[in-house]
Amino acid sequence: MAKNTICIWYDRDAEEAARFYASVFPDGHVKAVHRAPADYPSGKAGDVLTVDFTVAGIPCMGLNGGPAFQQSEAFSFQISTEDQEETDRYWNAIVGNGGRESACGWGKDKWGVNWQITPRTLTEAIAAGGDEAKRAFEAMMAMGKIDVAKIEAARRG
C-alpha cells in the first residue's frame, strides 16, 4: 500500500468511476474492490465499500460513503497534455461521459470530481512569467477547453 493515497468520496459509484478513469488515462488500473463486511449507514454488507485504483500513476481510493458529502472545486486532478489531440481526448472523455464543462480548462465528471485538462504549453507560459505569462493567462481566462493554438499564439504575442 502506498504511504499516501488520495481518497475520493462517492455516493455509491466508486467502482464505476475507477473503471472509467482506468480506461481513459494512461498508467491507470483498478487494483482491488473491497466489500463492506457489515451494514453501514449508507449501505449493506456485501456492497462495494472502497476501490483501490490508480489514475495517471497516482494511487487513489474511492469510498462509497453515501450522499453526505459532495465534490467541490477544492479538489481536482490536473492532467498535463502534450498537444490539442491529447487535450481533446481527455476533455471529451470527462465532459462527454455525463460531465460538464467549466472554465479555464476545468471540467467535472459525471460523479462530480473536478479535472483540469492542462496543455503543457499553458503551464510553460505561466512559468515563463512576464508579458508571455500575462498574454497566455488572459487567453486562457476566455476558454472552457484549452485551445492550444490560441495559447501558443498568445505566447508569441
**What is the correct CATH architecture of the largest domain?**
Roll
- Determine and state the CATH class of the largest domain: Alpha Beta
Euclidean distance between termini CA atoms: 48 Å
Class derived from helix and strand content: alpha/beta
Computed CA radius of gyration, to the nearest angstrom: 18 Å
Strand content: 25-35%
Helical fraction: 25-40%
Instruction: Write the H/E string, N to C.
Output: EHEEEEHEEEHHH
Number of domains: 2
What is the spatial order of strands in the main beta sheet? 1-4-3-2
Mean residue pLDDT: 97
DSSP helical segment count: 5
Could you name the ranges where pLDDT drops below 50 across 5 or more consecutive residues? none
- Global shape: elongated
CATH topology (fold) name of the largest domain: 2,3-Dihydroxybiphenyl 1,2-Dioxygenase, domain 1
CATH superfamily of the largest domain: 2,3-Dihydroxybiphenyl 1,2-Dioxygenase, domain 1
Please outline the major beta sheet. Answer: 4 strands, mixed
Count of extended strands: 8
List the helices and strands and how they pair.
Layout: E1 6-10, H1 14-24, E2 29-35, E3 48-55, E4 58-64, E5 76-81, H2 84-96, E6 100-101, E7 106-108, E8 114-119, H3 120-128, H4 130-141, H5 148-156
Parallel strand pairs: 1-4, 5-8
Antiparallel strand pairs: 2-3, 3-4, 6-7, 7-8
Helix pairs in contact: 3-4, 4-5
